[in-house]
Design a protein that fits this description.
Elements: H1 12-19, H2 23-43, H3 48-65, H4 75-93, H5 104-109, H6 132-143, H7 147-158, H8 163-170, H9 174-200
Helix pairs in contact: 2-3, 3-4, 4-8, 6-9, 7-9
Length: about 200
């Protein structure tokens, strides 16, 4: 088979090459997905140097476990799953991986009066997408999300993964993914509005 013309990473032939650690097949995957992995690492809040190290760790692990890859998910999903697990390991080592209770529901509930009206109407976050300064503000709010919420949000809204892929990568159910995205979006809204008000004071 000519790897120069092979583009179907889901094919049985390519899967066999991966399981056999065929060098050209691995190199093809590295060329295809390294940039996406790097951008995803940045989206998870790692700086450029740490992101590069994380991506290198992903490929090292992938090479080690490639013979056991069964092809039950697309190889891209499998690789991003490794990224998520590696990112979680790094956060745990740095004692920054937060599994504490999420207070965002209380924050959101506090914004409504008992009869259901807004106590403080929300500011539309879309108006902050107009300038680079405001994009920086939004990125800071994304960086402040707990890791699992940040991963879910980035995979869904930035990398445009499908629901099934995200669930496989993060290891959650569709229902749990919905909760993660709900919390992430509400946290972002609270963060953006808080920064906007502080700038306008």
């Amino acid at each position: 088979m000519s790897l120069e013309i092979e583009t179907n990473f889901a094919s049985l032939e390519f899967l066999t090459l991966i399981k056999n650690r065929e060098t050209k097949a691995i190199e093809k995957l590295v060329r295809t997905y390294t940039e996406s992995l790097f951008k995803a690492s940045l989206g998870l809040g790692f700086d450029a140097r740490a992101a590069e190290e994380l991506v290198q760790s992903v490929w090292t692990t992938f090479f080690d476990v490639a013979p056991g890859f069964q092809g039950r998910s697309h190889v891209r999903t499998f690789i991003f799953g490794i990224l998520y697990n590696k990112a979680s390991e790094v956060r745990r080592e740095q004692k920054r991986f937060d599994n504490s209770a999420d207070p965002i529901e209380d924050t959101i509930n506090a914004r409504f009066a008992p009869e259901g009206h807004w106590v403080r109407p929300p500011i539309d976050p879309e108006e902050f997408l107009m300038a680079s300064e405001k994009m920086t503000l939004i990125q800071k709010c994304i960086d402040a999300l707990p890791l699992t919420q940040r991963m879910a949000f980035c995979l869904k809204e930035i990398d445009d993964h499908g629901t099934s892929d995200i669930c496989n990568i993060i290891g959650v159910t569709v229902t749990n993914l919905g909760v993660l995205l709900y919390r992430a979006r509400n946290r972002l809204r609270e963060c953006i509005e808080g920064k906007a008000r502080s700038k306008n004071v």
